[in-house]
Structure formats: C-alpha cells, structure tokens
Design a protein that fits this description.
Length: 177
C-alpha cells in the first residue's frame, strides 16, 4: 500500500465520520420533529370563500417542496382529530377545532378544521376574513415524514458498517480498504 492510498483511505474515513455524525444529528432532529417540537407560524394569504361562513386556506407546507419532506398531520378519514394546527385571529385563538365543513359554513363563529392539507375556517363574528382587516395566522408542527427518517436510518447503517468493517463494497468496482 503506498502513501497516496493510505492518505485517500484516511480522508475517506474522515469524511465518512463527518457524514455519520451529521446523519445521527438529523435522526435526533427527526425524533424531536415527530414529537411536534418544531412549530411554524404563517400569516394567511390567498384565502378563498367557499360557502356560507366557510373560508379556505392552503398552508405553505402543502404547496411547496416541503410537502415531500414534512407533514403537518392534518385530519382525515382515518384520523379525524389528529391535527394540532391552531388558527388565530389578531392573536386570539379560534375554535373549536376539528369542526365539520357544514358546521363551519352554517354556524361559523371561529370553527375550523385542518382537513387533508387544507384549512377550513370562519371568523369569530362571521365577517369575511378576506375583507375584515384582521390578521389571521396558523401555527402547526413541522413533522418529518417517516420515509425521510427511514432513508436517514439506512444511510447511517450503511455508513456505520463501512466505518466498523473498514471496507466499502461497490458492486463491480471492487472494495476500498
């Protein structure tokens, strides 16, 4: 083994350790994320009127690259009360959450629902959120999707095996020791 091979091997192991440390840190971040520790707040824009007192908003997480990495865990048929989204009107919390679209449209008075990526809501006094000059904000946890965590875990395991065994095997390319 010549000096160049030893230096390249040492360099490869060094960067592998750095990558492994970064992967472990991202897995720790993922655990905190899954428990809802990272919360984002956004001001509602592009609100649309649906029917009666019901208005519609699509959160940024649902309409950007983030939807492939994060979820906000909206309500759906299997989990009708899973959403932890909160909506505020001039800083005051609206509610009750998990309301049906029909009750939001018929009764309003701050009812809302975070259903399959969309936020259906009404103002506290049934005025139009589009024109009543109040500021509406939503707050929800940014939760890393399970598939992203699995990819991180697989990469960390492969890298860990490489570092423990000292060999990295690529099919058809031989091994690096």
């Amino acid at each position: 083994m010549n000096c160049r091979t030893i230096r390249e091997n040492s360099s490869l192991r060094y960067y592998s350790w750095i990558l492994l440390i970064l992967l472990v840190c991202s897995l720790v971040f993922s655990i905190f994320s899954r428990n809802g520790y990272f919360v984002t707040t956004e001001t509602l824009s592009e609100v649309r009127s649906l029917s009666g007192n019901c208005y519609l908003y699509l959160p940024v997480i649902s309409d950007s690259w983030r939807k492939h990495v994060f979820t906000s865990v909206p309500d759906d048929d299997d989990r009708p009360q899973s959403s932890r989204l909160k909506i505020f009107e001039d800083g005051k919390a609206l509610g009750p959450p998990h309301s049906s679209r029909e009750s939001i449209a018929d009764y309003g008075l701050g009812r809302f629902s975070h259903w399959r990526n969309y936020v259906y809501f009404s103002s506290s006094d049934n005025s139009s959120p589009i024109s009543n000059a109040r500021v509406y904000t939503v707050e929800y946890p940014m939760i890393l999707k399970v598939r992203v965590i699995l990819v991180q875990l697989m990469l960390a395991l492969v890298l860990g095996v490489f570092l423990v065994t000292g060999k990295f095997q690529l099919t058809g390319m031989g091994s690096v020791t």
